Amino acid sequence: MDYDRMEDLDRTTGRTQAEVAGAVVATAPAPAGWSGLEPKGASFESAFVWLTRSAAILVMLVLAGICAVLLMDSLPALRTFGLSFLVSSSWNPVTVRFGALAPIYGTIVTSLIAMLIGVPLALGSALFLTELCPHRLRGILGTAIDLLAAVPSIIYGMWGLFVLAPFMATYVQPFVIEYIGPIPFIGALFQGAPYGIGIFTAGLILGLMILPFIASVSRQVFATMPPVLREAAYGVGATNWEFSLRVLIPYARSGLFGAIMLGLGRALGETMAVTFVVGNAHRIALSLFKPGTTISATLANEFTEAVGDVYLSSLLALGLILFLLTFVVLFVARSMLRRIGSKVSA
After folding, report:
1. Which residues of 282-307 are buried (b: 16+ CB within 10 A; e: fewer)?
2. Which of 35, 58, 68, 335 is the 20 to 30 Å CA partner of 92?
3. Which residue has the higher pLDDT, 42 or 144?
4. Of 105, 160, 137, 113, which Cα lies nearest the Cα of 281?
5. Mean pLDDT across 288-306
């Protein structure tokens, strides 16, 4: 800025400093080559806006197309069974009787077990790596946890089938059935034969799979906290527990909620790992140790074997239900995030 020129204009015209600054900028000579770049920059700006807008519209069209195809292909099953398709657990390709209740139940229960196992472990590891871990180990442990997200789901499934399921059947499930099974109410969740595979084992695998996603996002959210808040909390004598519980987590709660919803979305749609260990049985059992199935596992197992329009349409109807279930979960998450944000801003 030419301050000498500003002072000259100010003394001669009596205008304000803002008016003088605007006049100096307007009358300043353009840099070499600027006149040729301005029209080109405007055209690039217009092209960039058009390109990004087209990308957003294309994504919405693809999403609408997927929903439309699923809905149209699901109509034969929905017309045949009506609302009983949603409340029936019958699944018999021989008699052409299909109901989605058992896969829906398995999808929801395995996802809840995954969240109960994965969220505390992920948040605990994120807190440790952010606040308590020595700096020389922070990068190594953080990278190791992040690498868990790169392991293919089929590897988790094979490990669950050949390692985890036998371990559960030999050591964990017999112990739990013997000592927790007789307890009223809660014991009903842990009864039956120790198969190893089942709803609980599938939920355990899902919990391990969503852990790196939630932990990675949580660490990034914790790292955004201004240092002055951390120094102020420790300056008034807060312990690590008090700082984490009363300062860090409340500050990052909206981001943590988004990380948890990201993990829940992954758990709802996971296919291969669950298919290996869930047992693939179309039944609803109160005991978590008994085999069951999920929507994604049913699609993976039976899509290539589906014979007949109603059978194929029933599988596509399951896909539509999974699509809508995931959409509803993300919509509720966005609504809760918006509500949390409005409370914080208020």
Report:
1. bebbebbbbbbbbbbbbbeebeeebe
2. 68
3. 144
4. 105
5. 90
Query: For the segment 157-170, what is each residue's pLDDT rounded down to a tens digit?
Result: 999 999 999 999 99
Q: What residue type is assigned to position 237 of the chain?
A: G
For residue 292, give the DSSP letter: B
Alpha-carbon distances, residue 283 vs 65, 97, 276, 278, 320 (angstroms): 32, 14, 17, 12, 20
Rounded to whole angstroms, the maximal C-alpha distance in the chain is: 98
Q: For 179, what's the count of Cα atoms within 13 Å in the CB-facing half-sphere?
A: 6
- Strand 91-92 to strand 97-98: parallel, antiparallel, or no bridges (unpaired)? antiparallel
What's 311-346 look like in SS3? HHHHHHHHHHHHHHHHHHHHHHHHHHHHHHHHHHHC
Instruction: Output the pLDDT for position 3.
Output: 46
- Name residue, tokens 């069209």: 61
Residue 157 structure tokens: 């499934």
Instruction: Output phi, psi for 91, to 5 deg.
Output: -145, 95
| DSSP helix/strand/coil, 67 | helix
Structure-model confidence comparison of residues 15 and 236, the more confident one: 236
Rounded CA separation 28/48 (Å): 29
Which helix (H) or strand (E) is 306 found in, with range?
none
Q: Which residues contact 120 (CB under 8 A, 6 or more apart)?
A: none
* Residue 16 exposed, middle or buried by CB count within 10 Å (0-12, 13-18, 19+): exposed
Is the CA virtual torsion 100, 106, 108, 109 positive or negative?
Answer: positive
User: Considering only CA atoms, which of 343, 157, 339, 332 is closest in space to residue 260?
Assistant: 332
